[in-house]
């Protein structure tokens, strides 16, 4: 049991999400954390469901997907060791915006977000630390999405063809 | 940047009686498709001699008779003997004409020109290679050079971003490099497809997680300019020093030897004092409009 708690503690505290947090805040996070293993193919959450938990990946890979009629689940981004899976838990209406599917068997720290939200309300310093970290996750994903949108590696001629087709 | 051992710079060539404006004729030995719009061409001199020695990161001016001449980086092994190799993406008139060449056809080659990746600075330290799309081609000679003399270098990390799984360059080599203990290889694509279980996301995301020895490592970046800018910024955020980051710039070229000014970029003449620059040497120009 002691070993399990020590593993959980070291896995959680080693995550970039916890970098720079005060000891008291780390203790709050630890009290809301537990370790989970998920096999390949399992969904961590589905679009539209209540975002009452989130995950930090210790090992393995998770894909964020959007389900598209006639095309199935379209992967838009993957998350790997050290990444946070799920940032909707702190932003009302606290509903998942994507599906999250395990692509490679995962060891995860799962966080009870419903309890963490209560801590955020009760202790604004802790709340601010959480907002800062989730804003960082969102900002990184927004930067990435913008770069993906630019289609940097696309063939310039293909782009021109598309543009011409649209103008015509 | 001092030339690598074995390389011959422009001044030596002129002194040696070689006119850098006159192409040497090469024959196409083989053309291999890398993906739907990219191919690798293997060339040997028509006079039966050896291809010119080159340093990793240098380029040649390739001339298709009656069509045009373009700069293309050398993508082969700078240390081993063998044919001259260029990996080319079809984007327009000349590159499309090159894709139609057959074994035995002739092509004019001037070069090698330009500065090179500072592989000598990496001896004893970690090497981080960040490549995007066709940008892996000018960096492949570095990988050959380092893996060919592996014990001289520290850890080697290759971070590669492509548009989609089917557009990943040198797929078999990437697997072999990643499967050996010689190199950490991480590949990501902007857009996934069914059956792809690898990473999806931009190459800067790989930098965030890469195992880096911040103090000594040297980083070499090649790809579209925006990708290089964001990658350099991410490396700086990870604690790397500006003077340990190198990028390779591209501009349209005519003479390739610093005479015509066609490739001027601010005060830089890319064909002569580039294409490889230390990041802090070029940083103020990157991202500026109308340079
Ligand atoms: C130092 C240097 C090294 C290079 N190394 C390589 C290499 O290893 N492999 C390779 O495939 N290419 C490389 N290039 C780019 C290559 O020179 C161009 O793709 C080529 O000049 C295009 O000629 P084209 O006649 O086929 O296209 P053009 O008919 O001139 O242009 C067709 C379309 O392609 C666009 N285009 C032209 N050049 C580029 C470019 N560099 N990047 C993106 N879009 C472009 C044009 O804007 C236009 O939309 C390098 C360029 C430089 C300066
Ligand atoms: S291409 Fe002529 S000066 Fe560079």
UniProtKB/TrEMBL annotation, chain A:
Among SUPFAM superfamilies, the record links this protein to:
cAMP-binding domain-like (SSF51206)
Q: Which domain of life is it from?
A: Bacteria
Residues covered by the Cyclic nucleotide-binding domain? 17-118
Q: Which InterPro entries match?
A: cNMP-bd_dom (IPR000595), cNMP-bd_dom_sf (IPR018490), RmlC-like_jellyroll (IPR014710)
User: Which SMART domains does this one have?
Assistant: cNMP
This one is known as Cyclic nucleotide-binding domain-containing protein
UniProtKB/TrEMBL annotation, chain B:
InterPro entries tied to this protein: Cyt_c3_hydrogenase_gsu, Dihydroorotate_DH_Fe-S-bd, FAD-bd_FR_type, FNR_nucleotide-bd, OxRdtase_FAD/NAD-bd, PyrK_electron_transfer, Riboflavin_synthase-like_b-brl
In its UniProt record, a GO molecular function of this protein is: oxidoreductase activity
The organism's lineage is:
Bacteria, Pseudomonadati, Acidobacteriota, Candidatus Polarisedimenticolia, Candidatus Polarisedimenticolales
Q: What is this protein called?
A: FAD/NAD(P)-binding protein
* Keywords for the protein's UniProt record, in alphabetical order: 2Fe-2S, Iron, Iron-sulfur, Metal-binding
Q: Tell me the cofactors it needs.
A: [2Fe-2S] cluster
Q: What processes in GO biological process is this protein linked to? A: pyrimidine nucleotide biosynthetic process
On cofactor binding, the record's note says: Binds 1 [2Fe-2S] cluster per subunit.
Range of residues in the leader sequence: none
Give the matching CDD domains: sulfite_reductase_like
Report the superkingdom from the record.
Bacteria
Q: Where is the FAD-binding FR-type domain?
A: 21-119
List ligand-binding residues for [2Fe-2S] cluster. Answer: 255, 260, 263, 271
């Amino acid at each position: 049991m002691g070993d399990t708690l020590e593993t959980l503690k070291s896995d959680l505290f080693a995550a970039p999400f916890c970098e720079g947090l005060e000891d008291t805040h780390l203790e709050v996070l630890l009290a809301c954390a537990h370790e989970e293993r998920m096999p390949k193919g399992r969904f961590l959450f589905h679009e539209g469901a209540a975002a009452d938990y989130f995950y930090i990946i210790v090992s393995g890979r998770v894909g964020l997907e959007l389900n598209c009629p006639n095309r199935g689940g379209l992967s838009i981004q993957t998350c790997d060791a050290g990444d946070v899976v799920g940032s909707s838990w702190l932003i009302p209406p606290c509903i998942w915006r994507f599906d999250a599917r395990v692509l490679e068997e995962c060891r995860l720290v799962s966080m009870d977000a419903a309890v963490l939200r209560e801590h955020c309300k009760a202790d604004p310093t802790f709340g601010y630390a959480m907002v800062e970290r989730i804003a960082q996750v969102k900002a990184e994903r927004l930067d990435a999405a913008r770069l993906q949108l630019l289609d940097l590696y696309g063939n310039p001629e293909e782009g021109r063809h598309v543009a011409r087709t649209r103008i015509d | 940047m001092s030339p690598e051992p074995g390389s011959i710079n422009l001044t030596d060539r002129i002194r040696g009686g070689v006119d850098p404006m006159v192409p040497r004729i090469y024959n196409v030995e083989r053309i291999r498709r890398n993906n739907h719009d990219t191919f690798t061409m293997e060339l040997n001199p028509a006079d039966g001699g050896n291809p010119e020695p080159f340093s990793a990161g240098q380029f040649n001016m390739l001339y298709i008779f009656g069509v045009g001449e373009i700069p293309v980086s050398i993508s082969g092994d700078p240390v081993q003997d063998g044919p001259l190799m260029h990996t080319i993406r079809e984007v327009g008139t000349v590159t499309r004409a090159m894709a139609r060449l057959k074994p035995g056809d002739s092509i004019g080659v001037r070069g090698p020109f330009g500065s090179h990746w500072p592989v000598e600075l990496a001896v004893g330290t970690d090497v981080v290679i960040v490549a995007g799309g066709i940008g892996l081609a000018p960096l492949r000679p570095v990988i050959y050079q380092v893996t060919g003399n592996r014990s001289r270098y520290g850890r080697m990390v290759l971070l590669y971003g492509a548009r989609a799984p089917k557009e990943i360059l040198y797929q078999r080599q990437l697997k072999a490099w990643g499967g050996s203990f010689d190199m950490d290889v991480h590949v990501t694509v902007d857009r996934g497809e069914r059956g792809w279980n690898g990473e999806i996301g931009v190459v800067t995301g790989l930098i965030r997680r890469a195992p880096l020895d911040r103090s000594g490592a040297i980083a070499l970046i090649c790809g579209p300019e925006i990708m290089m800018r964001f990658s350099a910024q991410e490396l700086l955020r990870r604690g790397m020093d500006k003077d340990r980051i190198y990028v390779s710039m591209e501009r349209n070229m005519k003479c390739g030897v610093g005479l015509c000014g066609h490739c001027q970029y601010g005060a830089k003449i890319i064909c002569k004092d580039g294409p490889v620059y230390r990041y802090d040497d070029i940083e103020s120009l990157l991202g500026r409009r109308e340079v």
